[in-house]
Design goal:
single chain, alpha+beta, six-stranded antiparallel β-sheet, 4 helices, about 25% strand, globular, disordered N terminus
Length: about 130
């Protein structure tokens, strides 16, 4: 049974857009996709658990540099820009700066979604799945 609070949350989730970029290539476009409303709700749940820490510098290495997540017209109190790399999350937005360990499995979840979107070969070549199985 759907509650009023759940219905309002689903409506709100469908009002904004979340774009994910797998930041892996140098010199050619990175894979990008938009999350579906159900995926947005899962992302919201994972972000609810973030707690403060220090923002890390972004990696300048070649190859995999993480997932970039951009929320357009997102709910109040949520970050607009998220970078997940090496099991660490940097989240930024107006009045919102959080750097913390990825205790909710956001990076693994994004890897799974990337595979579902047809980027499994890129994931395999970048050894991302193996890297995060530890």
């Amino acid at each position: 049974m759907t509650t009023t609070k759940q219905s309002a949350r689903e409506e709100q989730s469908s009002e904004y857009r979340v774009e994910v970029e797998l930041d892996i290539f140098s010199g050619r476009p990175n894979p990008k996709w938009t999350l579906h409303p159900g995926e947005i709700r899962i992302l919201e749940e994972k972000l609810q658990e973030l707690s403060g820490g220090i923002l890390r510098e972004e990696s300048q290495q070649l190859g995999y540099r993480g997932f970039r997540v951009v929320l357009s017209n997102g709910p109040p109190g949520f970050p607009e820009h998220i970078l997940v790399n090496d099991s660490y999350i940097n989240a930024k937005g107006p009045g919102y700066f959080v750097g913390c360990q990825d205790t909710e499995g956001l990076e693994k979840w994004l890897i799974q979604i990337a595979k579902e979107r047809g980027y499994g070969k890129i994931i395999q070549e970048g050894r991302l799945g193996k890297r995060l199985d530890n």
